[in-house]
Amino acid sequence: MTTQTATVPREVEIIKSFTRSLAGGGGDGSLISLKEASIKRFGELGFPKRKHEMFTYAQTGELVETQFATSLVQSLARFAEPLKSHILTGCERSVVVMVDGYFSPALSNIAGVSDHVVVTALGEAAKNGRILAMLEKSATGETDVFAALNGAFFRDGVMIRVKPGAKLSAPLLVVALSSGAKDSLAASYPRILVEAGESSEASVIVKYAGFGGAYFVNAREDVIVGDGAALGYCVIQADGPESWNMTKLAVELGASGRFNHTMALNGGRLARRNIEAHLKGEGGKIEISGASALAGKEQSHIYARVYHEARDCESSQLFRNVVTGDSKTSVDTTVIVGEGASGSVSRQLVNALILSGGARADAKPNLMIYNDDVKCSHGATSGGVNADQLFYMTTRGVSRRDAERALVAAFLRSVTALLPTPASVEAAEELIVRKMENVK
Predict the structure, then answer these.
(1) Which of 127, 184, 223, 234 sits at a 20 to 30 Å CA gap from 5?
(2) pLDDT digits over 331-343, tens only?
């Protein structure tokens, strides 16, 4: 007689792990209600099965089945020296540091912007009933199972509040480090909340990076842009090739608000950004731009939903991806124009350069329009380097290889040039442009 051992579903394993985490003091007590709402939502959603709409292109089976331990940092001081290489020039006195999802006031330095910005541990910020209610509402309505996991397992987080009317002279840099090392499989759950007060102007740069090895970053970013405020929000995803990075960005934009989001993505084993943006106030404008450069078996995926919910709002999206080897990229983006959102303007454009037979680039720009007074367009292109441009350069003495490199660099730089400072542009180009220059 053969005894069979029943397979315990991963969702059940994780819910049990959550229960043990709470029993062991899993985080700030002010956030317990948020965590409980998040794990309940996780149980309702479950991990994506085949043909799940949100994960059509990003297959998560390997990630789901991998056993990760939660990173438990004992001492953050040892990261002071390696941190230096990740601080961008001009941000030395406007930097917020997280290590394995833990906010570190000791490693942070906001002296240069302290008159205009308040930085608080999220548990402390959640003692404000308004903040806690907002976080709990996002948990109960969550549609992304990985974002629900973040809400259940994050132990710390950071809230950044730009004061109303403030004008920041330097970008605020958030460095989210992972201490992944060889032979370790650790998961961290960074949580970032940014609130730009009415009529403020600021730029925030978030950089994800690690110290090697295989690790899983499951992050949540919430951004609230007040009426008349202008916020630049940039992400440089510089995780290593063996890493996973799953991030949910949720944005709410007030009346006449401006939100400019630029991304430079390095890929890795699997990198995915889920962007959910709501234009809630009349006259709001949002711009989303992203570039990735992938080699080997790296993957980078964008899933975006932009909701026009008020009159005279404008959104634009531009994605440019380069793939070679057996790498994969996808952009699945939809603009939803509501019934009352007359006067809406929307543009979507997805471009991909495919440099090898084994690489794949998928694009799925969509429009869902529920009123007639709109101007909306969308398009997508994919293919190799432009043959006419290549011919022009080679007939003028440029080698074919150098010509290809120059054209790929120009393709990516149309996005990286949108970053707010020379140092951030340099960091992004070091990450993706020079990466392609070194691919044979």
Answers:
(1) 184
(2) 999 999 999 999 9
